[in-house]
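Worked problem 6 (solution included).
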Amino acid sequence: MPGTLKIAYRLLVNDRAKFAALLVGITFAVFLMIEMTSLFSGILKRASATVINIGAPMWVMDPAVQTVANTIPLPDYVLDEVRSIPGVKFAVPLYSGGGLVKLRDGTYQSVNIVGLDDASLYGRPKLLAGNIQDLFTENAFLAVKDSEFYKLENPAVGTEFEINDHRGVIVGIAHVAASGLFGVPTLYTTFNRSLQYIPNMRMTISYILVVPKTPADVQAIKKSAAAAGYVALTEDEFIQKISTFYTYQTGIGTNMLLMTVISFIIGLSISGQTFYTFILENIEKFGALKAIGAKGRVLISMILFEASFVALTGYGIGVGLCAAIIFLARLYLPDYAAIITYWNLILAFIMVVVIAAASSYVGVRKVLRIEPFDIFRG
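Solution. The predicted structure is:
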């Protein structure tokens, strides 16, 4: 480390109170920014939980569908029409709806019902207990062991319940990649059984899951579906559509963005003001360095080093603190949705760089304007 940077480091950490105040400001801002954006990322992932868990390459749906929970039933003939499209390897129906379960203690619990194709069970989850073949037996259901599992009284294989005055039996405990958004447990069964147990409208198919023969057939399938008056989306496109809906057409995106901006302003104001005070208190030392021949670029490098050191240290502490809080929250709050992604970290880092740049600019302007004559005269 060059000698001038060592001097800058000593000046920075010498006043522990000011140094701690700078770190607290940056850390608090980073913590809030990471927390807000992580919570938003978790909400978006849970909103697309059904799409992620099923894992179908393509989904055919009504054009008015905005989220996977907003199902608009399709006529049965659409399934045959999709299967006849050149480039479709196979296509199966999917049922997605809600039901009301009566538990063993007599209480009622709303559940999501996912009905898989009877012939293939395409999109079935991974089992933690039980045999997937038992799903073909009478009254059979799979219970998903996620953050909402306890609301079904932690059932085991063989647990019985009632659903819309029908007997149901848990034949397997399943694991899925993502939990649902709305705090409702999920049950899997066959497509025909879901139609028998759940009251439905005249049209019964929620979505059609499509597997193309090759990736090159995707565009042709989309055009054929559009010609029939329906929409075919890839898995990523459907997830993006759901994310866009929750970001721009609900208050979630606006509220999270507002909280992130407020966190940025708090960090910028605290660090900027504290760093400016730090420069004022050490102005004589910078003036002395300038008097003995330190060039302007040397003083600028010292200030940039100090601002960068504080910003990166506060960033690391803030990210670590947020990760620890999320970890602890998930231990005691299974429904907690926050998830840290690379985009959260990159966004927070960019904002920290902006805070450091603004703080440096304030300090650089003050230091470059000082005259050694004024310092020694005082």
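Discussion: The mean pLDDT is 85.
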